[in-house]
C-alpha cells in the first residue's frame, strides 16, 4: 500500500482526458496534475526543448512526493520517454504504445491513420509502435498542429474547428482507413468535429483509456494501491492562466475543479 499520489503531466489541458480515465478506473487514487499551458504547444518544438520541458515537469511533480508518473502527452512520450525512464527511479507510463495497441486491435482492413503534432509525426513513434505489433499494416500519418490551439481555446465544435479539420483531414479520409489514432491527448476533445469530417466508417482511437489501464496494472503489480478507505485528493497546477484552466478543465472532466495553482516551471 502506498498513499502517495500519482503524478500526471501534459503540455496543457489535453492530458485531462487521460486523467479522467484514471479517475474512473482508480477512484481511490490521489492525483497531482500539471498542465504546461504557458509553453504549449510542445508539438512544434524540437526534441531537445520537449525533453527539457518534460524533465522540468517531472522534477516539479517529484517535489509533490508522487509514486508514479504518467506522461499524458504524445510528443513528450515520443521524444523523451526513454530518457525519462533511464533518468528517474520511478515507475513511468507513456501514451504512444497503448494507443498503438488499441489501433491494431480495432482495425479490420489493416489501414490505420494517425493524426498528431508535427513532432510526434516526425518522430515516427506511432509507425514504429504499430509495426512492432503487425508489420503488414498500412499507416497514413498527418500532422494537425492547430488542433492543440483549438482545444486550449475551448473551440471544440464550432465552425472554425470544422473548417480546420476539413483542411487537415480532407485527403486522409480517402485513404481507405477504418481506424484513426488521435495521437495527441488534446485531440479527443475534438472527437465530434473529427468524426463529422471522417464519417461513421472510421473508428477513432484515443490512448487515454489504454494508458489508464497501464497505470492500473502497474499500481496493482507493484502493490502501491492507495488505502481505499481514504478520500482521494486531486491537485491541479498550470504554468498559465489559473482561471482558464479551472474553467475549461472542469468542462473536460465534467466536474468542478475547485482550485488550481500557477507554477513558475522554469525554476525546475
> Helix count, per DSSP?
11
What fraction strand? 15-25%
Give the class from helix and strand content and strand pairing. alpha/beta
Low-pLDDT ranges: none
- Shape field: globular
Count of all domains: 2
What's the oligomerization state? single chain
**What characterizes the major β-sheet?**
6 strands, parallel
Report the count of strand segments.
10
Going across the major beta sheet, what is the strand order? 4-3-1-2-9-10
Radius of gyration: 18 Å
SSE string, helices as H and strands as E: EHEHEHEHEHHEHHEHEHEHE
- Helicity, as a percent range: 40-55%
Describe this structure in words.
With 268 residues, the protein is of the alpha/beta class. The chain has 2 domains: 6-94 and 209-267, Rossmann fold; 96-207, 3-Layer(aba) Sandwich (Rossmann fold). It is 44% helix and 16% strand. The strands form 2 sheets. Strands 4-3-1-2-9-10 form a 6-stranded parallel β-sheet, sandwiched between helices. A 4-stranded parallel β-sheet has the order 6-5-7-8.
